[in-house]
Amino acid sequence: MPDTTTDATADTVTATKALLEVDHVTLKFGGLTALDDVSFEIREGEILGLIGPNGAGKTTCFNVMTGVYRPTSGQVRFDGTPLTKMKRYKITKLGIARTFQNIRLFKSMTVIENVLVGADAHSKVGFWDALLRTPRYRRTEGEARARAAELLELVGIKARHDELASNLSYGDQRRLEIARAMATGPKLLCLDEPAAGFNPAEKVKLMELIRKVRDAGYTVLLIEHDMRLVMGVTDRIVVLEFGQKIAEGTPAEIRDNPAVIAAYLGVDEDAS
Amino acid sequence: MHFDVLFNNLPAFTVGGLVFGAIYALIALGYTMVYGVLQLINFAHSEVFMYGTFAVAWVFVLLHGTDSVSWSLGRAIPLLLVALVAAMAMSAGIALLLERVAYRPLMKKNAPKLIALISAIGASFALSEAMGLRDRFAGWFGLEDNLSDYVAKARDVYSNPVTIQPHDLFSVGNYSVTDVDLVVIGAALLMMVALDTFVRRTRFGRGIRAVAQDPESAALMGVNSTRVVQVTFLVGGLMAGAAATLYMLKIGSTRQNAGFLLGVKAFTAAVLGGIGNLRGALLGGLVLGVAESYGSAVFGSQWKDVVSFVLLVLILLVRPSGLLGEALGKARA
Amino acid sequence: MNPVSTALRAVAANWDRMIDGFHRKPLPVRIAVMVVIALFFYALPLLRPPIITTNSIDFGGVMFGVVAFALVALGLNIVIGYAGLLDLGYVGFYAVGAYTTGVLTAYHGAWPFFLVLPISIAVTMVFGVVLGAPTLRVRGDYLAIVTLGFGEIIRICLVNVEWLGAAAGIKDIPHPPSIGPNPEGPFAGKKGLFDIPRVQWDGIVPSLDWDHATHFLTFGAGDAIPYYWLLLSVVLLVIAADRLVKASRVGRAWEATREDEDAAELMGVPTFQYKLMAFALGAAIGGMSGAFKASGQGGYINPQTFPLLLSMLFVAAVIVGGAGNRWGAVAGGALVAYLPERFRDINDYRLLLFGLALTVLAIWRPEGLLPPRRTRRVKAAEAEIEAIEEGELEEGAHA
Question: What transmembrane ranges does the database entry give (chain B) (predicted)?
Answer without folding.
Answer: 12-36, 48-65, 77-98, 110-127, 231-252, 306-328
